[in-house]
Amino acid sequence: MKDCIVVGAGVSGLVTARELVRRGHAVTVLEAQDRVGGRTLSVSFDGRRLDIGGQWIGPRQKHIAELVRELGLGTFPQHHAGSKLLARGEDTFRYGGVFALPRVSPWAMLDLFVARRRLHRGLARLDPRRPWASPDARAWDAITLEAWMNENVRTKDARFLLSNIARAVLAAEPDEVSFLFFLDFLRRGGTLDETAGIAGGAQETRIIEGMQTVSERMASALPEPVHLGEPVRAIRQRDRAVEVVTDRETYAGRFVAISVPPALAARIDYSVPLGRERQRLMDQLPMGSVIKFLVQYETPFWRQAGLSGEAASDRGTILMTMDATSSDGGVAALVAFSLGTSGRHWAKRTADERKRAVLAELAHLFGPKAARPVRFEEKVWVDDPWSGGCYCAVPGPGALTAFGDALRATCGRIHWAGCETAFQWPGVDGAVESGKRAAQEVHARLAIERSHTTEVRA
Amino acid sequence: MKDCIVVGAGVSGLVTARELVRRGHAVTVLEAQDRVGGRTLSVSFDGRRLDIGGQWIGPRQKHIAELVRELGLGTFPQHHAGSKLLARGEDTFRYGGVFALPRVSPWAMLDLFVARRRLHRGLARLDPRRPWASPDARAWDAITLEAWMNENVRTKDARFLLSNIARAVLAAEPDEVSFLFFLDFLRRGGTLDETAGIAGGAQETRIIEGMQTVSERMASALPEPVHLGEPVRAIRQRDRAVEVVTDRETYAGRFVAISVPPALAARIDYSVPLGRERQRLMDQLPMGSVIKFLVQYETPFWRQAGLSGEAASDRGTILMTMDATSSDGGVAALVAFSLGTSGRHWAKRTADERKRAVLAELAHLFGPKAARPVRFEEKVWVDDPWSGGCYCAVPGPGALTAFGDALRATCGRIHWAGCETAFQWPGVDGAVESGKRAAQEVHARLAIERSHTTEVRA
């Protein structure tokens, strides 16, 4: 009988296990896949590992920064020296410098800045623990981000820019997500600027060894190896224990920490019903839609042309790109994202069709050299059975106000981790925060039950 | 008798000499100081040379980029990952991310963007060869930048931001400079954004070995060593030659290329008067006012705090700072600038007073660690006798429309180089451009005179 069974060996699950082991508890970690890391995944290119999953750390993300230091990993800044590109239809605009804003009219700028101020004023009024209980929560959760923009953003250009930012940070379309969720997403990231930006923002820092190494190092430091290739099928809650059933074995523990996305947690068979709120919550938290591409080249030719590698495009294949070159410069690469509708569209095509379309679009943005890569890798997170999509859950209208309280509420002996349950920073930092919280909860209950047991024995 | 005597061994003079030597001409270079480099100056810190003079290369600055490659020097991006600081009075604001704009009202933003669009529309109407002959040149040269802002910028915040940008890029006050000059200055740099920015802007790239190395390598490659410590006192134009007089010797050449700032060229005694226009031009091109500080620390502690090292302050000591850490990270440093009025104010104080004030301001911006440097260096360019100030000449109203044509007009056998005479990019790139042009002019005249001599002999 273990003190805790952890379901899922992504960042949040491994942090839960790590923190419990630190406090002297016995832990088993069960993982469906044949690898750890969950929504982080690093691919080896000529000996350097580049990230084709979650990859960035922001300046105020203390949890992941501390963990990276503890694990002895190195960090380096996301490259962004140089001009950026914005492709709209057949036109491509190049911009950079002190404002680094694409050339739109001052009226569109005013419009964007008024909208930004409204967003920042709105998020300042959110309850940081229970945003769904904030004064305006019902009104904000009743509409989509698209509906809010239709009311609050007048110019086409400002709507275009704001929609692009939303797609980039959520991996979802403005007409899919609750406005309350978007507002709370920005609150969790500080501001619109910090959420979406590189310098001073959430995309500022990369990990030299690749983000998946964080999970690998945590896993290898556990006294009991992670059980790979064992999807959890059922969880049976008993009076003072819980049984976690996989195809291979049944594991007994005092508590369970489930650290997979809510939509995947819904597929487990629970012997004791979790309750209507939790069940509906899991049914109503669809995941974002991402395909991530890593494209290696002989040289970072865009840098020589004065380009940073950042581009945004409305042309329907890839929505944005960034420089993905390794920290030592030895592997030159771009990373590109298909997001939201276009992510789902291209997920249905063949790998060959995607490669052709992505290289054509990169050539449109960066010139003919971009059509001749050394190597092309993709990760279709949209179709990934063990994440259900990326980056995170993207609730539509109504879900949070109705079921938000169920996000972190324990269900008997089941505790919940995962970046969806974080108070701040959806993403890797939130995953670490949530794992620490779940471990703290389980530790507290173990302490109570032990003192109780001791009393009974005495 | 040399083919050309070059006066001044800054970047423009050495490029003039280098290009003439390449074409097979005999050249003597005379330099007042005991070093080459002019307004570039690199100081050794633990074996790395950091720049306390001109130091940056922008993405479209082809002339200096090509020269740097020819000389086998390395480049690296100006560090700017992290948040920026803006100090106004006692308040310090931290900002960063996708917009990276300090928190001002949307109305100030609109105001700034309308002003920016007006500036960009204005500069698009400038004649790139003779801006003073553009349709609106007289009206624009009749007012200062301050006067233009009073008419065109409504909000205090937008005036503050635009004034700060102007001070930072000109090293002069908005009420000192001609609006035509400011507009042309932006035109030479592309846009306001490109002129003032880091990523995609003119402050994007640094030289690993320090910018002064550019001049040192050019000097050491010349067949005749640069004559150091020989200020030119007089230039006597003869019928088919010219004599250049220093305290030590008189040098005879067919032509002279003067590559010192116009205000310094005015101090030379010319046997043949240069003409009223040239004389007045030299009298009316005052130099900008800069004190540059390099402050070394044990560690780049601001980076650990999520700060880029960029700060702007209206508190009257230093107007801006940036990270100045060496490319290998071995020397952690900040660079700070006193500019315009405050540059002149602090130039009158003692070095100790300046050091105390600058460290107090750095501590105000970056915290108490900033008050404890390992080493503190300053260069009071304001008082520098052999540049007369930095970065460049900053004409007041009236000068360019009256005497602009005299900037590059040859005076008998005298040709003019120096960044003030460049068509694009005032600064190091303009210096290289102007040196190439001056060399081309002298080469063409040498070719004509030689063919003439050959004919006469035949």
UniProtKB/TrEMBL annotation, chains A, B:
Keyword set, alphabetical order: Oxidoreductase
Pfam family, one: Amino_oxidase
Names of the cofactor(s): FAD
All residue ranges annotated as the Amine oxidase domain in the record: 11-442
Family: Belongs to the flavin monoamine oxidase family.
Protein name as catalogued: FAD-dependent oxidoreductase
Lineage: Bacteria, Pseudomonadati, Myxococcota, Myxococcia, Myxococcales
